Amino acid sequence: MNKKQSKEIVKFWDEYKTSQTKELRNKVEKRYYAFFLNSLAPNSGIVKDIKLDRVELFEKNIGRIIFSIGKYKPWLVVKNKANQWKFTFDEKSVLEKLTTGWISEKIGKIRFHTQKPLTDGNKRNAAKLIDKFNELEKIFGYSIPVIDYYSSPDDAKISSNVIGETDKGAGNARYRIIKAVDRLDQTHELVHVFALEIGYVGPFIDEGIATTFGSKDLVSTKESCKKVATMLENGILFYLNGSNFLQAHIQGENVYGLSQTVMKYWHKKFGIKKIKMLLKKGIDDPLNIPKIIEEVFEKTDITKKNIKEILDNKCKKSRDIYEKS
Ligand SMILES: [Zn+2]
User: How many Å apart are CA 105 and CA 197, to the nearest integer?
Assistant: First the structure.
């Protein structure tokens, strides 16, 4: 039985890699369709670079695929419904199995899962995240009943297995789940959880939201300001393409800084309601991101023009880290 299902999952991935876009709806749970289409699109460069490392089964109908890309081993959960395997972000049952023997402590609306009991220092960091949780409920205008936060020890074997990351502090967000390596105040990932609750419109928008509400200013020096201004010359449309965005990020470009600058501007001009509307539209229309941005916000060349102005002013004002007076 297990062997048969493992084979099915391998086959599922083989078929996924070369799927037609229209077939993808059968291979991904509907609410994450846009995520996969824009981050792990079939026939894309990123899919070609990824190798299947191994498959694990947890129950009859739940498994995970562990990938291998460079030194990274990210993993994704697949669920079988009505004889069809599908990718899902609903990882709770898998994480419960991976963290057998860990300790759970609920503080506010967050259930923290750690290998060892929380120290006083841990609890102070957790309290910061609870404050942020309350703040985000007000900003986004809805409440989330409870989320699960898995913090692994700073141990490559455990963090790779459970979190899918190995750098201390690194994390990722799933449906009502945060995973992080030895860190209990991942506010950036918490914002992702709030955004994923509504929808997903590709990494530019997703990271723009997470950095606007959950990160420090990422364009704070003259040097970074100039670099982001240079990137802007490619146009907003270029980075709205998920593959371009991720490739620029992997190459070490401050593409998060660009998305933060743009989202801060859109937030100020159009407000959170429009941002939520955009996220919702992305679920049904993930192939038409530029179109829905025009519908909900404005034409991207108007955004580009205004961002250029914002950056020009900022570059003039911001001091270079190397020329502190
Ligand atoms: Zn992020």
Answer: 23
Same domain, 74 and 107: no
CA of 214 to the centre of ligand 1 (A): 9
Distance 188 CA to ligand 1 centre (A): 6
Looking at this protein, which amino acid is placed at residue 150? Y
Burial 226-238 (b: 16+ CB within 10 A, else e): bbbbebbeeebbe
- Give which of 184, 190, 242, 276 is closest to 38, Cα–Cα: 242
Nearest alpha-carbon partner for 186 in 198, 175, 177: 177
Let me know whether 237 and 300 are in one domain. Answer: yes
Dump pLDDT digits (tens) for 259-283: 999 999 999 999 999 999 999 998 8
In three-state secondary structure terms, 132 is helix
Taking residues 179-202, what's their average pLDDT?
95
233 and 278 share one domain = yes
Q: What is the pLDDT of residues 295-325, one digit of tens each?
A: 999 999 999 999 999 999 988 887 655 544 3
What's the pTM value of the predicted model, to 2 decimals? Answer: 0.91
Is residue 173 domain-shared with residue 209, that is, in the same domain? Answer: no
Q: Do 189 and 214 share a structural domain? A: no
Q: How many domains does the chain have?
A: 3
Check residue 32 and give its pLDDT: 87
Residues within 5 A (CB) of ion ligand 1: 207, 210
Pairing of strands 75-81, 62-68: antiparallel
Report CA-CA distances (Å) from 244 to 2, 18, 238, 284.
Answer: 38, 19, 7, 22
